[in-house]
Each structure stands twice: as C-alpha cells, then as structure tokens.
Specification:
The protein is of the alpha/beta class. About 40% of the residues lie in helices and about 20% in strands. It is built from 16 helices and 22 strands. The chain has helices at about 5-15, 55-70, 80-95, 100-110, 115-135, 170-185, 200-210, 225-235, 245-260, 285-295, 315-330, 345-360, 395-400, 415-425, 440-445, 480-485, and strands at about 25, 30, 35-40, 50-55, 140-145, 150-160, 160-165, 190, 220, 240-245, 265-270, 275, 305-310, 365-370, 375, 380-385, 385-390, 405-410, 430-435, 450-455, 475, 490-495. Strands 14-17-18-13-12-19-20 form a seven-stranded mixed β-sheet, with helices on both faces. A six-stranded mixed β-sheet has the order 9-8-7-10-11-21, with helices on both faces. Helix 15 (about 440-445) links the parallel strand 19 and strand 20. The longest helix has 20 residues, at about 115-135. The radius of gyration is 23 Å and the shape is globular. The termini are far apart. The structure holds adenosine-5'-diphosphate. Adenosine-5'-diphosphate binds near residues 166, 226 and 252.
C-alpha cells in the first residue's frame, strides 16, 4: 500500500519531481506570453516551490481563443456520445493510474497530509470525472405537448467557453467538480487554478489530452487572481464563470460578468456553518463529527463546522469530548504518512488565523484548547487545533470565516434561540443538528438556511448530492446530475407540419 511509504520516500519523490509548469492551451505547454514565472514558499517547510508560468491577459486571450475554436468547430460536442464517454472514463482511469504523483503535487502545493491526498483528493477527482462521463450517453431531450400540427423539441445545448476559477484548499476535487459536468455537457473550459495550487490542474490537463480529449477543450492558465483570474472573468468570449473561493472575490467576479458580456456565474463561496447539539443529542457522535469536520484539512474547508451551538447543559461535556479527539490527531510534516493535520497554506494566512484567535481571546471567549503556532522548527506554517467555548454570536470568531483549525462553541437555552443564532450569519453553506428526536431534527433542517443540513452526522458527502450555498455562500450547485444543467441551456426547435 502506498500509504505505508515513509516520509523519506515521499521527500525523495518530491525532490525528483519535474512537474509541468507552463500555460496549457491547444494541447501543449508553453511559457507565459510575458516570459514571467512565479513561485511561493511551500506550506510545510517554507522552502521555495516550483517556478510556474505567470499567466496574465495575453495568455487568457490565447487560451480562450483555443477553447472557442474547439467549441465552434464542434470537435468535442459533436462526437458520438459513447466515444465521449469512453474518453472521459479513460481520463478518470489515468488520474487513478497517476495517484501517487497527483497526491504528491497536491500535498506540495497545499500542505495537506499525503495520506489524505491519496485516499481522498485524487480518488474523489477520478470518481467525479467518472460520474459525469457516465451521464454522457444517458441524457435525453424533450418533446413539448404543443398539439397535433406541430412538434416542439426542447433541447439542451452547451454554453460555449466556461471559465473555471478555483481555490487552493481542495484543488483536484473542486477542479473536477467544474470540469466533469462542463466537459460532459460539451463545453470547452479555461481553468485558472489558485496561484497557491496550480500543479494538479496542469497535470490533469496533460492526462486529458493523453486520454483523447481533443486539443483546446480543456486549457489551464496558472497565474494570479488579479491578473489571469480577472482577465478571464472580464473576457467577452467566455459564456460563464464557475467559481469557488471567497465571497469578496465572488462579488468581484459577478461585477466583472455584469460589466463585460453578461456572462453567467455560478459561485460557491464562504461559510460559517453551524452545528446544533441539542440536549438529547449523542455527544460522542457529535464530538467525533465536529472534531473531524473542523480539524480535517487544517480547517481549510468552506463548509467546516466552525460554529457549534451547544445546549448549555451539554456544552462543557461536548467540548471536553471534542478536545479529547483533537488531542489524538497527529499534527506533523504532511509527507509523514501518519500525519493527520498538516500545515496552513501560507504564512500570511497563518498570521490571519492567529490574529483571529487573538480576537477570540480579547473579546472574551474561553480558550479551551490550543491557540498557538506549532512545529516552527519544520519551517512551515502550522497552527494547532484550537477550541473556544462560552462564545457569543456577535464575537468576531463567530462571524468571520477563519479558514483554520479553530472551533467556536456558543451555548444556547431554547431551540428557537438556536435556530435564530444558526441563521444569524451572512452565509448559508452547511449546517448540522444532533438530536435523538427526529421531529426536532426536521424542524431544524426546515428552518436553517443552508445548502446541506446533516442530521446526526457532518460532512457526509457523495458525488450524487448537490453541494453549494444559500445567501452569501453563493448560488449554483456543484456535484450531482443537477450540476450539468448550469453548463447548458434550453433551445426550442418548433416545427409546423405543412
Ligand atoms: P482566498 O482569499 O481564499 O485565496 P480567493 O477568492 O481570493 O480566495 O481565490 C480563489 C480564486 O479566485 C483563486 O484562483 C484566485 O486567484 C482567484 N481570484 C482572486 N481574485 C480574483 C479576481 N479579482 N478575479 C478573478 N479571480 C480572482
């Protein structure tokens, strides 16, 4: 099993890696038009990472032109559906065959444990591509009930060039959430991965061409948000932007869409997701789900359960149980296969997380665990699991997205109060409720505004369920069959019988 490789094995493999780092369009890699490159310190040891092409406006223009040509000449969308399915399934298989390399690229970029990258990120990426591949020859169009003298066919058509702009926390998974349905629907894609995590996307592009995806259907422009991302969002030949990232950037993309060609946008944004633990809830199950939910991926998960609303009489017991589980999680160098919590993405982000922990203390929440930077001798950016209790919902740590391993526990006395606190946020991504009483559970699931509400669990996920948010967590869903709809639109073809 690969997961039993030692840290030395992975470090040696990383030292030997020569990943693709160019701009990818028309089926091949090349330097950025400007010739510029950029690199950044690795999250886990602070050493310089790989130098990657710094794509900007001219590179976006070239990649969009390549994608548009591929769409206009129908080299992909007009293919036999069975052939399209075969190519996408082959792509998914190639991802699986290259699991170790892709996992290493993901860990090198993000600082997440190699064991998670192997078992979760690469696997989920392949499964997502496979799921959408399998839909290609199973979609039917409709005939409308227009009467005996007419036939109106209601067809769904792809939109054209899709701009995908993705974040750094789960690059391969989120890239696949956009690529799978967009390409299965017959579109072309230009992907702008986060500047922190371009390597997996570039390898995915190479594997796509190896699988037989025609040139120009999938293109990648690495670079910065303010340069390459902005140029993509403003581009007149892009039909839609599929975005995952911060709410602030989501708003900028929506404005760019409105001011350019009124392109569509689908936004999966931030969260401040509540989990309500009622007085009759199973505290062990709740503690387990909460600890994994908030500390997995160092808390860099948009729907992680950052606000725990605990019935006052169970708060202390719950917090003790979460802390006990957190105490067993091994935080260390992410290339060590036993590591369960790795590093934060970058130094600036670590200081933001530590600053918010400082706010928690100064605003009067009770620090029950952690609170500090750790493993400084490794040279990377690590913050230990941190728990605040006796917090209130007006504190900064209950309102702002921290995106780190920081849990905020807020006590409450009545169910209606818990619902009000749960909804007292600009976000609406995930939510949970723990109770033995299903009537109470369903009242919560009805009243909490969130894209997913888990009952007696958290972050249970599957490609078959839609994922996304209400309110300022965005709109448009990733995952499931429904995600395909946003990359297509209806066309009615009305024929009169003469
Ligand atoms: P974070 O603050 O967590 O890094 P962002 O929302 O800034 O999250 O980043 C998510 C993605 O959005 C990244 O690929 C980033 O480069 C891109 N991005 C950032 N700013 C812009 C922008 N103004 N226009 C388009 N894309 C952007």
């Amino acid at each position: 099993m690969t997961t039993t490789y030692s840290r030395d094995h992975w470090q040696t493999a990383l030292d030997r890696l020569t990943p693709k780092t160019g701009v990818f369009f028309d089926g091949r890699f090349r330097d950025a038009a400007s010739g510029a490159t950029f690199s950044r310190p690795r999250p886990f040891d602070g050493r310089d990472g790989f130098a990657v092409a710094r794509g900007a406006g001219a590179d976006i223009d070239a990649a969009v032109a390549s994608a548009k040509k591929a769409f206009d000449d129908k080299r992909w969308r007009a293919k036999d559906p069975a052939e399209k399915k075969r190519i996408m399934l082959r792509w998914a298989d190639l991802v699986r065959e290259n699991t170790e390399e892709l996992a290493l690229l993901e860990t090198a970029d993000v600082g997440k444990p190699i064991s998670d990258a192997l078992a979760v990120d690469v696997k989920s990426c392949a499964n997502t591509l496979q799921f959408y591949a399998e839909t290609i020859d199973k979609h039917y169009d409709e005939v409308a009930p227009t009467g005996p003298n007419d036939r109106a066919i209601v067809k769904r058509e792809p939109l054209g060039v899709i701009g995908a702009i993705t974040p750094w926390n789960y690059p391969l998974i989120i890239d696949a959430w956009k690529l799978g349905p967009a390409i299965a629907a017959g579109n072309s894609v230009v992907l702008k991965p986060a500047e922190q995590s371009p390597l997996g996307a570039l390898r995915l592009a190479e594997l796509a061409v190896e699988a037989g995806l025609p040139e120009g259907v999938f293109n990648v422009v690495p670079g910065f948000g303010a340069e390459a991302g902005k140029a993509l969002a403003e581009h007149p030949d892009v039909a839609m932007i599929a975005f995952t990232g911060s709410t602030v950037t989501g708003k900028a993309i929506m404005a760019a869409a409105a001011q350019s060609n009124l392109k569509r946008v689908a936004l999966e944004l931030g969260g401040k997701s509540p989990v309500v633990v009622l007085d009759d809830g199973d505290l062990d199950a709740a503690a387990n789900a909460i600890a994994w939910g908030i500390f997995y991926n160092s808390g860099e998960t948009c729907h992680s359960p950052t606000r725990i609303l605990a019935a006052r009489k169970v708060q202390d017991e719950l917090v003790a149980k979460v802390a006990a589980i957190a105490g067993t999680l091994k935080q260390d160098h992410p290339l060590d296969p036993a590591t369960q919590i790795g590093a934060l993405i970058e130094e600036k982000h670590m200081h933001k997380v530590l600053g918010l922990i400082g706010k928690g203390r100064s605003e009067g929440a009770s620090l029950r665990m952690g609170g500090k930077r750790v493993l400084q001798d490794l040279g990377g950016f690590y913050v230990e699991p941190t728990i605040f209790a006796d917090a209130s919902n007006d504190m900064t740590i209950a309102r702002e997205e921290i995106f780190g391993p920081v849990l905020t526990v807020i006590p409450f006395d009545r169910d209606d109060e818990a619902i009000a606190i749960a909804n007292d946020t600009i976000y609406g991504l995930g939510a949970g409720v723990f109770t033995a009483d299903m009537t109470r559970a369903h009242r919560f699931s009805e009243d909490i505004q969130a894209g997913t509400v888990w009952i007696n669990g958290y972050d249970l996920s599957n490609i078959s369920t839609p994922f996304g948010g209400f309110k300022q967590s965005g709109f448009g869903r990733d995952r499931s069959i429904h995600a395909i709809d946003k990359y297509m639109d209806f066309k009615t073809v009305w024929q009169r019988f003469l």
